[in-house]
Amino acid sequence: LTNYHVIEELDRVLVKLSTGREYFGKVLGYDSHTDLAVLKISTLQSLPEPEFGQSTDLQVGEWVMAIGNPYGLEGTVTVGIISGKGRTNLGITRFGSFIQTDASINPGNSGGALVNLHGQLVGINTAIIAPAGGNVGIGFAIPTEMAENVMHQLIEHGEVRRGVLGVT
Q1: What gap in Å lies between CA 56 and CA 143, rounded to an integer?
Q2: Are 139 and 126 contacting, i.e. CB atoms less than 8 angstroms apart?
Q3: Residue 10's CB: how many other CB atoms inside 10 A?
Q4: What's the confidence (pLDDT) of residue 136?
Q5: Catalytic annotation present for 110
Q6: Catalytic residue among 31, 35, 55, 104
Q7: Would residue 55 show up in a list of annotated catalytic residues for this protein?
Q8: Amino acid 132: pLDDT
Q9: What is the pTM assigned to this prediction?
Q10: Dihedral angle of Cα 85, 107, 14, 5, to the nearest 10 degrees
């Protein structure tokens, strides 16, 4: 599970694990409206899977960690708090109710994990809003409930199915 903007226009992706192992991942599906994509890694070995937490249970002021590869620095962890929940109309994606955090999310953190202090995945790091010309800004993550829903639909159907109301 990663961000669509990370794998946009790619069919295969080289996935490097923290162990140093590398695998080619196939793009199973993506949803540009939520900026999410699902990759499949084929291996005979079982790989560790994150435990999904409930982002709806997060409280403003709760500690979280953002994991990613900012500026190509592998396996970077930054710590901060939940600054806000349910952030909308950010111009990041068509759909969204983002988690706002002050844990540093920098270029290269996209698609990385936002985890709570229990080590559970509570969000997918997706964007930073910074003042013009600045790298310091406000970080945002996609909540796990949205990410899991999109992930399951992409795995099952290869696309996200949404209801449409034909009213103008």
Answers
A1: 8
A2: no
A3: 13
A4: 65
A5: yes
A6: 35
A7: no
A8: 62
A9: 0.85
A10: 60
Within the chain, which residues score under 70 in pLDDT? 90-95, 131-136
Distance CA 111, CA 15 (A): 12
d(CA 59, CA 39) in angstroms, rounded, equals 30
- 5, 33, 83, 102: the active-site residue: 5
Q: Which amino acid is at 7?
A: I
Q: Which two tokens stand for residue 57?
A: 């249970």
Q: Which of 79-118 are b and which e, b meaning 16 or more Cβ less than 10 Å from the residue's Cβ? A: ebebbebebeeeebbeebebbbbbbbbbebbbbbbbbbee
Instruction: Specify the length of the chain in residues.
Output: 168
Structure tokens at 164: 């449409």
Q: Residue 55 carries which DSSP code?
A: G
The one catalytic residue among 31, 55, 104, 110: 110
